[in-house]
Amino acid sequence: MPAEYDIIIIGAGPGGLAAGLYAARARRKTLLIEKNITGGQIALTAVVENYPGIPEINGFDLGQAMQQQAEKYGMETAYATVSAIEPQEDRRHLVRTNEGDYLARAVIITSGADYNRLGVPGEERLTGFGVSYCATCDAAFFKDMEVAVVGGGDAAMDEGLFVTRYASKVHVIHRRDQLRASAVLQERAFANPKMHFIWNTVVEEVKGESAVESLRLRNVVTGEESELPVSAVFIFIGQTPNTSFLEGLVEMDEGKHIIVNAWMETSRPGIFAAGDVRDSSARQVVTSAGDGATAAIRADHYVTDTFKVA
Ligand SMILES: Cc1cc2nc3c(=O)[nH]c(=O)nc-3n(C[C@H](O)[C@H](O)[C@H](O)COP(=O)(O)OP(=O)(O)OC[C@H]3O[C@@H](n4cnc5c(N)ncnc54)[C@H](O)[C@@H]3O)c2cc1C
After folding, report:
1. Which of 54, 98, 177, 212, CA to CA, is 20 to 30 A from 66?
2. Does any ligand 1 atom lie closer than 6 A to the CB of residue 242?
3. Known catalytic residue at 134
């Protein structure tokens, strides 16, 4: 028989870790399932400066602290990939993973989002050899070298600025003629002498034998092609919510984010969603944590009402 829990949480980012803290403190038997590393996206972020009460903290450390805090109250953690959630006749849900199955009275989905790929030749082959989706992890390998950043949003500017701590020059390649990033990040990016902007341009190919050597670029206005010699390319062109294992189970929007109400309830009773995986999320640590807390409080009430337990 699969092990049984009151509340199972899928994904150990800030949303899942906050949900775990609240569920465990409500004295619910709580399991958090994570397929990768604790902390989710924030685990790869060098500095978090906007979590209230903590002026500055390394993202990995913040994730570890959140996990320890929740485990102190009894939350268990399992490292596995959830492949499906199957509703049972008795209103529980079977949570299937590559390491075995679990039964839950309520499920909270906090599976977040993954980085989008460019989908150009050379990108996949050279991932880990100059193609990166995490400047915090890889920037130090490119000290005093010229590198590129692709994208024009917050992540591209945030990570691009981080890369300037190591690289001699950071070429920001953006397909439009202006950035989408917040005003503060734009100001910082434009003020940084190492940042060089290449507008209206897309990457057509990542070139290199055993590591990135250059990028083939195309100007989307003139159609002109050019080659940019760089030792690395950091790609930040958005994310896709991790919801493929939930197809047909809960309602989603066009972008495959899970639709929830203000209590983080999905279209299916007993299943809640919180953080970056939900629709209309502000996609921040603090908002994901807030969502997670809300979902856990509601899931606790749901377990009480539905299964007639205290
Ligand atoms: C580079 C970068 C810098 C950022 N900086 C800041 C910042 O300074 N301040 C801020 O507030 N926000 C920042 N953010 C945003 C913030 O990190 C996210 O909003 C937040 O991490 C979202 O939390 P989450 O719990 O919803 O999801 P995530 O952090 O995405 O966590 C989801 C977790 O679910 C796991 N998972 C997914 N699918 C499965 C499955 N099938 N089975 C098991 N586990 C699964 C994933 O491995 C992951 O660990 C930054 C983001 C990035 C990318």
Report:
1. 98
2. yes
3. yes
